[in-house]
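Board notes (copied after class):
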Amino acid sequence: MVTDTLTNVTPATAVKQDQVLLSIQNLRVWFELRRWGFGHAGYVRAVDGVSFDIHCGEAIAIVGESGCGKSSLMKTILAINIPTEGSLTFDGKKLSDMGRAGTRWYRSQVGYIQQDPYGALPPFMSIQRILEEPLIIGGVKNKDQRIARILKVMSEVKMHPPEDFLNKFPHMLSGGQQQRVVIARSMLLEPKLIVADEPVSMLDASVRVEILKLLRGLQEQHDLSFIYITHDLSTVRYFSRRIFVMYAGRLVEKARVDDLIRNPCHPYTLALLAASSDPDANNALRFREVPPGEPPSLVTPPPGCRFHPRCSQAIAGKCDKQDPPDFEVEPDHFVSCWLFE
């Protein structure tokens, strides 16, 4: 549990409300299905109409169960997936207009922290080679400059003394040390945005606290923006400023973390809180019931609200027919649910 050691986070660096770093508008990422010998067989609508902004120095969390589209959204932000529709604008520049050189620059500005540190580090490369590679690709030709940058970043992620780790291989490190190397690699090119894909889910509980503290410290020290992707609400409230709840390819609730924990609105959000391992998140016994059924198919999603087949409060003739828009239930707290029309 992280609840006993961490306190609710208020970033030391105030969010620059007038400076949007990343703007995502009406993003759709569909993957074509093809059957051998039969051609086109439909689309997997992994991300289907997602919009939000991230400000400079802001940490947000995207939460949802497996298969909701979090990873597809993350890979699109990392410029791995190509959007089917919609736009990504980074620092005032549209990703679709950047071209090859612009996309390479964009990728240098967005760091990535993988979920499985051991799987993310090539086992046949030393830590020095692993950390030198992004710098070489990034155009740092001087070896002394590369080593100096590596030692600086390794010190920032609390690997002391950093020289002792350069010639080691990933299997010689503990899980926490491996994740610190992954974090160091994401920081090497001095990015403005870090995408963290469940960065503590593979670690022991005691190490999770250390890594979350480290990430928070790096965010404040370098005024970084963070996208924290997870299904575990027990860590979100101690790291992020805002939280976006994702279900079946769409964002169903968006709010400041404290507001969402205090006043969860969407029935799916209530289900996530009911299943949370954080006792403080279960702030009302009436929300402990987990809805029956399975998430819908993203190939043939249900009409209307995609949660309505599992929702005990669904309004017949409305929830199953019409897509709900975002309703503002309180300042900066939006929920996509007809119950709040």
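Comment from the instructor: Residues 276 and 283 are 11 Å apart (CA to CA). The radius of gyration is 21 Å.
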